[in-house]
């Protein structure tokens, strides 16, 4: 599919999955508004996209632990366009460790702020631009850690809490925004292989039935969801974990 008529906002696009998604969507013709915690990180992804021959990309700093930074990001995007079609809530700080006492209070605060509060405030600030689109979609990268009863990850309790908060938020948001035509789509991947699109690994990462999930497959799921007719509301993608 082509995305020449799509304006897309992606948080945490300076590295890893957000970067891979930004590069892929820009290659497909989307106009991408990407953010990272630092402007330098966002600009690196922007410059790599431009080097591939597309100029429809803008880079911004956005710290999802800071409400003023989120608001400023949305206002800057609004200065470039009167609507956005897709918001990708990708940012959430990962915190490792199965011992509640092993991390600082500030680590707990930042993890919850970026994943939970940050997702809610980013959605709130960009919703007016989404409501001006004829094809608005909100994509949220959650995790199997956001599923009830999940206990297989070695992530910290605060990360689990942030992901469960995202899951609860998107669940109710899907129902409340449907009358306005906004689709709210959540992805619940386990740990996955995340190759960079500008490296050879992007083309050689195995994608067989016994291999780990890949970022390419997650991007394919997103493309599938947003390409469906507007009567098709895919609420979530759930994935089998490796045995």
TrEMBL record:
Enzyme class: oxidoreductase
Cited Pfam families: adh_short (PF00106)
EC number in record: 1.-.-.-
Keywords tagged on the record: Oxidoreductase
Keyword Chaperone: no
Gene Ontology MF terms: oxidoreductase activity
Keyword Oxidoreductase: yes
Record-stated family: Belongs to the short-chain dehydrogenases/reductases (SDR) family.
Protein name: SDR family oxidoreductase
Organism (species): Nonomuraea purpurea
Lineage of origin: Bacteria, Bacillati, Actinomycetota, Actinomycetes, Streptosporangiales
